[in-house]
Please model this.
Amino acid sequence: MDARELGLPMQVAAPEPVELPDAVTIWEVGPRDGLQNEKQAVPVEVKLEFLDRLADAGLSVLEATSFVRPEWVPQLADAAELLAGLQRVPGVRYPVLVPNARGLDRARESQVRDIAIFASATETFTRRNLNRGLDEQFGMFEPVVQRAVGEGLSVRGYVSMCFGDPWEGAVPVEQVVSVGKRLLEMGCDQLSLGDTIGVATPGHVSALLRGFVAAGIGVDRLAVHFHDTYGQALSNTYAALQLGVSTVDSSAGGLGGCPYAKSATGNLATEDLVWMLDGLGIKHGVDLGKLVATSAWMAEQLGRPSPSRVVKALSS
Ligand SMILES: CC(C)(COP(=O)([O-])OP(=O)([O-])OC[C@H]1O[C@@H](n2cnc3c(N)ncnc32)[C@H](O)[C@@H]1OP(=O)([O-])[O-])[C@@H](O)C(=O)NCCC(=O)NCCSC(=O)C[C@@](C)(O)CC(=O)[O-]
Model:
């Protein structure tokens, strides 16, 4: 797909910078977003070692897997087996994706404490990813969120296609804010704003975040989730940090992609993020050496090199 035919990237002027946060929570999505699109089966033992090594490297939030319909994402069909074998490290959270009541039942059977629902800002992607219409998705999520909150779970709400959609082109800020607002009103405690196909640029990121703030939603409730298709993930993250966002999603070694958005490539690499945060003096709690060794090991398991610049630079 050539995003320029869709009017992307959208040109939005960058705003005045504000102070950067002192510390950032890295929401590591490698085990879930990173592996969900792998063609070859990844053995559950490899996934477990991946999770253990990421925890040992100091990551405190590890998005472990998804309790989606196994036919839709076969790579994560082993979710229950994975969580049964997981040695949970105290202080580390292991959120999972849950789309519906059946997913929540399965997650609860696996003693999950943190879940994430995943909405889309566009009609087409909602249909492709959830087999539901844009409005219909809320009817699916609402009982899940209500029950999860009632049972004391934390609930994150993803919003996909926040910037551009491969079928619909540029996505208006108001459309994204409206979807995000509904998820927060439902009871989600945090939103993760996804650039699913990696077409955003820093000015567009600022405009979206300002749109949320103007709607009364503080940046403390927002996380950002960038894919690196056009090489903008790190600059986009910097734009979000400038506006006070302090939760950033990334994937060890830059693994990733969405099986229902073919133009989605890997996520922002956690190593690249850590390198930048180190340079800015922002705390994150991660041991970069251990993380790079983990991604180099994972690249061997998958039989291809990591796309992360920092992994390449530090493991050669
Ligand atoms: C939402 C559904 C389930 C609808 O899928 P559906 O086919 O419409 O399912 P249904 O509701 O019609 O149910 C049909 C059958 O599936 C079963 N079923 C139904 N749900 C489940 C479940 N949870 N676990 C196990 N089984 C399930 C259900 O019990 C029933 O079984 P039957 O009664 O016929 O025997 C499907 O579309 C789905 O699983 N979609 C997930 C797609 C996905 O995981 N995409 C990737 C994640 S999103 C992403 O990566 C983006 C993100 C988050 O990273 C941010 C960004 O980058 O933007």
Notes: Residues 33, 36, 66-69, 72-73, 97, 99-100, 102-103, 106, 118, 129-131, 158, 160, 194, 196, 225, 258, 260 surround 3-hydroxy-3-methylglutaryl-coenzyme A (CB under 6 Å). The chain has a mean pLDDT of 94.
